[in-house]
From TrEMBL:
Catalyzes the NADPH-dependent reduction of ketopantoate into pantoic acid. Residues 188-302 form the Ketopantoate reductase C-terminal domain. Pfam families: ApbA (PF02558), ApbA_C (PF08546). This is 2-dehydropantoate 2-reductase. GO terms for cellular component: cytoplasm. Its EC number is 1.1.1.169. InterPro entries: 6-PGluconate_DH-like_C_sf, 6PGD_dom2, ApbA, KPA_reductase, KPR-Related, KPR_N, NAD(P)-bd_dom_sf. It comes from the Bacteria. GO terms for molecular function: 2-dehydropantoate 2-reductase activity.
Amino acid sequence: MDEIEKKMKIGILGPGAVGGFLASLFWKSGERVLCIGKAGDVSAIKERGITIESPIFGDFVARPEIDTELRVPIDILFITVKSSFLKEALRAVNKESIKSAVIIPLLNGIGHAEIIREILGTSVAAGTIGQIEVVKDLNGSVRQVSRQHPHIDIASDGDVSSSRLEEIVDAIRRAGVSASILRSEAEVIWKKLVRLNATASLTAAFQKPIGVIRSDPDLRRLLEGIVREGVAIAGREGTEIDSEETMEEIDRLPETLMTSLSRDVAARVPSEIDSITGGVLKKANFYGIPVPFLEGAYKRIQKRIS
């Protein structure tokens, strides 16, 4: 198969920081990329493109296609909106355009795939993106803050064939992003969520970077406690996560890392608290698992946004 035949038509629903970054990497690798965004995003990207500043991928301007609705057939649709805007964003997707597509939500937290299947009723694979910290400034430029190489995990419990998943992973890797196919959708979700739930909840609750949280003895005790609670819930979800390995991953994170949840809570804008901290709490209550450390962090966050 030659290089032209390998290229895919990739849709990005939500060209914000993560979505704009991914769209630009796919565009740079030669894929046909179509972003679906709000009117303001459409006019800005049509006029100026997407400026990327990255210590890993370099500085460049990407010029993907963009529209307010998905009107043309695509092969893959990555969903990168915030969870609080998911249902609204899905209204921009024409079902005829995704008849042959695989949909991969890259939202933080849990419960997104179920919403997407209910509204769109098509092939959905679980997906997460990690090792990435990007911010979008007022001019629309996307800056990669950390020097970590992004990584995407995907899996399907039956909607998507293994051969299609392999094609998608190949496209991701051509864009310079590492990718893996895991054994189950639950493994994809909880492999990231146990770590993210701990780091996001505490950076949001205390408004401190992860370096401070993991080096302060009292805050580290909370961090380890929330990780252990997440591991227990993941086990009930059918996924074994090692708490020590998760803490090792957290210890490798950049000291200055502030999660998107912490930034949104500080700015008092709609956040992912219901799908991350709140979502994990609901699972804990469902299984009857005590989570005092997470409950404490959740209460602190609620005080900040109330």
